[in-house]
Amino acid sequence: MRVNILLTFTIMKAFFEGIQWLFENVLFWPLNQFRALELENWFGANTINWIFMAICSYATWYWCKQLTMHKNNGEENQDTTAHSFLTK
């Protein structure tokens, strides 16, 4: 019984160490490269941030454009009784 528990513990420890190796050596490798690049070129190291800011800016612009389009077409319902729980 004790050998079974020890074997199970060893297998689980190896499993989680495998997950640790995967994340540290494979999945986070690009981020480690950006971290090393930061000492030489700040703008280059923050390219991911610039890309995310551009995507969020475009999404905000598109959302506001759609809101304006629906408001101009009269499709927007701004009545406070739009939800049944507000009429009580």
Helices and strands in order:
Layout: H1 2-27, H2 29-37, H3 42-45, H4 47-72
Describe it for me?
With 88 residues, the protein is mainly α. Helix content is 74%, strand content 0%. The protein has helices at 2-27, 29-37, 42-45, 47-72. The chain is flat and about 70 Å long.
In short:
This protein is 74% helix and 0% strand.
Tags for this entry?
single chain, 88 residues, mainly alpha, 2 domains, 4 helices, flat
Rg over CA atoms, rounded to whole Å, is 26 Å
What would you call the shape? flat
Helix content: over 70%
The rounded distance between the terminal residues' Cα atoms is 65 Å
The count of helical stretches stands at: 4
Question: How confident is the prediction overall: mean pLDDT?
Answer: 86
User: What is the H-and-E element order?
Assistant: HHHH
Give me the secondary-structure category.
mainly alpha
Number of domains: 2
| Number of beta strands | 0
The major β-sheet equals: none
Q: Which strand-content bin applies to the residues?
A: under 5%
- Which consecutive residue ranges, at least 5 long each, have pLDDT under 50? none
